[in-house]
Design a protein that fits this description.
- It comes from Nonomuraea helvata.
- Pfam families: FAD_binding_6, NAD_binding_1.
- The protein is of the alpha/beta class.
- It contains five helices and eleven strands; from the N terminus they run E-E-E-E-E-H-E-E-H-E-H-E-H-E-H-E.
């Protein structure tokens, strides 16, 4: 049996805004063992009266010593995200446990082309893969299809706007598309994956992350396009979970 993961103290050292409802938090976690892009951590809060609440959040960046980066979207009815997005300040501490997960990960030594399909805040673990690729100097080509309600909800907007050889980004909007968008608002369709993704005969590794309905629909569309099910890795979340 693998050893049980221990809770570790995590001190917040930096905060950055991502959207009106989300921000990125960088914690210093002494003794952090490192992680792979695509893994996640459990975050635990403890109130003065001893009450605890915990949620899982995807890691937003590759391993970087004892630093752990999370991007958290505020779910107003949640127990953890409102604190992380509205209350916590630099110098405050929480507890983290991880890294967790070994299937939904990308390894820099992989040579297969990569297709990333994100729904909303499902971009977070996929961004960790993009950053890990850049960090490793990998020349594996990546394509990202990022579906979200409107442009104001984009995470990592400035970073994804910068030139990154070998990374192609396609934005899809479901509620309101910005002026000049090549596609009207709407849900992810077969043509979106056919045009923005890789042909199935390229045998890409496909990673899909987002709300459950989005993930199931995207995975079905990829199979319909001929992608091998064993090459489609999915990660899903609900309104009380993390991403």
């Amino acid at each position: 049996m693998p050893p049980r993961l221990a809770w570790r103290a995590a001190e917040l050292v930096e905060i950055a805004g991502e959207s009106a409802t989300a921000r990125t938090l960088c914690f210093r976690v002494p003794g952090w063992p490192g992680h792979l892009p695509g893994q996640h951590v459990d975050v635990r809060l403890t109130a003065d009266d001893g009450y605890t609440a915990q949620r899982s959040y995807s890691l937003a960046g590759p391993a970087d010593g004892d630093l752990v980066e999370l991007t958290v979207e505020n779910f107003p009815d949640g127990e953890v995200s409102p604190y992380l997005t509205e209350v916590i300040e630099v110098g405050d501490q929480v507890e983290v446990r991880g890294p967790v997960g070994g299937w939904f990960v990308w390894r820099p030594e992989s040579k297969a082309p990569v297709l990333l399909v994100a729904g909303g805040s499902g971009i977070v673990p996929l961004m960790a893969m993009i950053r890990a690729r850049r960090q490793a100097g990998s020349r594996v080509p990546f394509r990202l299809i990022y579906s979200l309600r409107d442009q104001d909800r984009r995470f990592y907007a400035e970073e994804l706007r910068r030139p990154d050889p070998g990374l192609d980004v396609t934005y899809l909007y479901t509620r309101s598309a910005p002026a000049g968008a090549s596609r009207p608002p709407g849900r992810l369709l077969l043509d979106d994956l056919a045009e923005g993704g890789w042909p199935a005969n390229f045998e890409p590794d496909c990673y899909v992350c987002g709300p459950t309905g989005f993930v199931e629909a995207a995975a079905d569309l990829l199979v319909a396009l001929g992608h091998a099910p064993e090459r489609i890795r999915t990660e899903r979340f609900g309104p009380t979970g993390g991403s």
